[in-house]
Amino acid sequence: MIAVIGPTGTGKSELSLNIADALERRGSGAEIVNADAMQLYRGMDIGTAKLPIADRRGIPHHLFDILDVDEEATVARYQPLARAAVTDILERGKFPILVGGSGLYVSSVLYDFQFPGSDAAIRARLEAELAAVGPGMLYRRLAELDADVAARIGPHNGRRIVRALEVAEITGSPVAGMLPEEPVYWRETSIVGLTAPRPELTARLDRRVHGMWEAGLLDEVETLLAAGLERGVTASRAIGYAQAVKQLHGSATESEAIEETQALTRRYARRQVSWFKRYADIVWLDYDVPDVVDRAVASVVETSSGPID
Fold this sequence. Notes:
alpha/beta, 2 domains, six-stranded parallel beta sheet
């Protein structure tokens, strides 16, 4: 398996296509598996920078557009679907290329780890408590159960705090819902990470956000509102979409919506960099070096025992 990861705005989709083309020329086909949580959603295209079908060069893409916006995206639901796609691609003698920047989603496929089950009643009770009192009280409760787990999640991520408490009630320990500190690979994997100097990346991300509005994000969001976007636990919080909803409802001006989206996107990119720095075997490449594709393919060839000529 090949993984192409890194912060948003570094060109992962384009690199994955180029790697697939290069492998095809070497006699080994490749198919792409999505590891971006928001690209799972039908109709969320502009704000997620989803590659249009016409631009996919005929390369099969998996796990795009599989959820409606009023459905919840969870990594526990995603993992078996992604692994089934990877296994199918491998069994057909091709290389699966896992592409995306959602750190936990990527890790759930790369590493040998099974998520514990869920209990709808416990989850509903904890989510109601989160809505009523905010994450602070729940975080303190989690910290009393396991300070290390609480520190890894942080005090502001309400969804993950709720999940950890749910797992603790089901299994007796919130650790069961966490990735191990020293994980083992699920499949032999070559990991390519794209990076960019922070000033360049910041400028690219700010331009991308302006481009989203120019490309018609508000029209896209209006359509999604009619499809139930605001009922969605996950989709309604997506960066850019939540801000566009504010603008459409009149609680933010366009400039305020854009500025907030830019700030949140920059913060998200920093979190992505921190997450992927944990990966021990990653080959980091600058996003704009002329031979980035050659270097990426070389790293795959050197580490793979798969069907490359």
